[in-house]
Amino acid sequence: MKQTTGRLDRGNGTEIAWIRLDGAGPSIVFLPGFRSDMTGDKATALAEFCTERGSGLLRFDYSGHGASGGDFLDGTIGAWTADALAAIDTLTTGKLILVGSSMGGWIALLAAIARPDRVVALVGIAAAPDFTQRLMWDSMAPAERATLQRDGVLYVPSQYGDPTPITKALIEDGARHAVLTGRIPIRCPIRLLHGQADPDVPWELALRIAEQAETPDVRVILVKDGDHRLSRPADLALLRQTLAALLGQDGA
Length: 252
Fold this sequence. Notes:
alpha/beta
């Protein structure tokens, strides 16, 4: 199978880094999480999975992430969704299965709504739709909200490394792209993998997505001792098994 890499010019002075594996359809598109990139454990596990099965795969970094250009502080849900749609429209053909991790799960939902004729299935891994409101703004103390409103950015501690910058633009834009405000107009199969020991995104959020999605074909798979990343060997095996079933390669 042929693997190619490149940079997609977004027309605003920013280039999006991408890696594509040519193969049979439907192709898989991986959507990373907030402050994550296309070289993590789940992304590389997907590359191995697709190589073994001859399936196409596209992975990329949003602007301000990983190897892509741009400033992370300029990013918003709308901007990163636009990056995803540009990558999908320019670098893929045919039917797609979207795999979104954390914030990528939210962007996968938005992309599936925007491209219903192309997305035939969606897999969320600790999917975090509307997290800017539910998990950021709603959890802020009054003093933190005041700092954000005054300075335009708030830095909060992170267990994953440097403090996380949260911008006022991210919060405001996130509200405009909320999906858990009513019925979610997605009619393709949805699979939601979530760890019940996730300290960042409550697993009950998967149930909300399942309840509000229009498709009747939704399955929520809970991993009792699973954390937010779901990157252990057993977690990655579950992801492969889930995708194999969606691709009709589970032997059923």
